[in-house]
Amino acid sequence: YPRQHTRETQLSKFNLTEVEAMLASYTKVLFIREPFQRLISTFMQGMGSSPSFSSFVQDVLDSGQQARVAWKPLTSLCQPCFVQYDYVVMFGFLRQELGHLLRQTGLPVDSLLPELSDTQVQWTYSWLSEQMFHELSLQQKKQLSHFYRWDLAAFPFFSSFLSD
């Protein structure tokens, strides 16, 4: 796209005609992760200042519309109803999906794919999710489900604790 080298990086900085032309000229890939796993990862990386997962979740819930990007709902960040993504790659299936994506775009697969152990990652996050979900009050669980309701509706997170 002709204006690709401008300092503006957010679509909201462009007019509708420019946005449509820009989006039509790119292969659009969205990487997604189950919301509760995103919260766990953010907490484990120390991005919150809370001493416990439960208090971290409460901080997230209290932040509301001012939520940090690390835990903001994906639908508010990536606009999947507005942007027609060519590929949606889900965390936990990265090796399989990235291989397919690279083949479809004509890039060499073997030299670009890092070693990913999807099965081990899925098992670890399943175990962590179960442990940390039990730390939350019923009220926090309901509030989280509501906070991420659009992500849960937009993407196929089959085994999310938040969708129950």
What is this structure's SSE topology?
Blueprint (H helix, E strand, L loop, with lengths): L15 H9 L4 E4 L2 H10 L8 H11 L10 H5 L8 E4 L3 H11 L4 H4 L5 H16 L4 H10 L1 H6 L10
Parallel strand pairs: 1-2
Describe the protein's architecture and organization.
This protein has one domain. It is 50% helix and 5% strand. It is built from 9 helices and 2 strands, in the order αβαααβααααα. The chain is mainly alpha-helical and 164 residues long. Belongs to the sulfotransferase 2 family.
Provide a brief overview of the structure:
With 164 residues, the chain is mainly α. The chain has nine helices and two strands. A two-stranded parallel sheet has the order 1-2.
> What does the radius of gyration come to?
18 Å
Residue share in helix: 40-55%
- Number of DSSP strand runs: 2
Give the low-pLDDT segments.
Answer: none
Membrane topology: Single-pass type II membrane protein
GO biological process, one term: carbohydrate biosynthetic process
Enzyme class: transferase
Subcellular location: Golgi apparatus membrane
